[in-house]
Amino acid sequence: MSKAVRAYAEVLRLVRHLPKDTRGYYSKYARENFVNYRHVDSSTLHELFQRTYHHSLWVLKKYSIDQSSANRLKDICSL
């Protein structure tokens, strides 16, 4: 499985930790971003994975959710 697909799957797992009324918005937002960036060159991938991780942390913090739940995403994005 590609790194991008693993990161997307992990982001969707993190969305399940969010309040129920926000899950639809964030899952749609994640999908749109992964679709929009599917044809980028490999030189920008590392930056996009870092943005994915940091934005996920921001959202978790916004809803007061333990950021340690994003450890798997950190592992995926830092490879």
Automatic annotation (TrEMBL):
Lineage, broadest ranks: Eukaryota, Viridiplantae, Streptophyta, Embryophyta, Tracheophyta
Entry similarity comment: Belongs to the complex I LYR family. LYRM9 subfamily.
InterPro entries recorded: Complex1_LYR_dom, Complex1_LYR_LYRM9
Domain Complex 1 LYR protein residues, every copy: 5-50
Superkingdom of the source species: Eukaryota
Name this protein carries in UniProt: Complex 1 LYR protein domain-containing protein
PANTHER family the record matches: OS01G0342800 PROTEIN
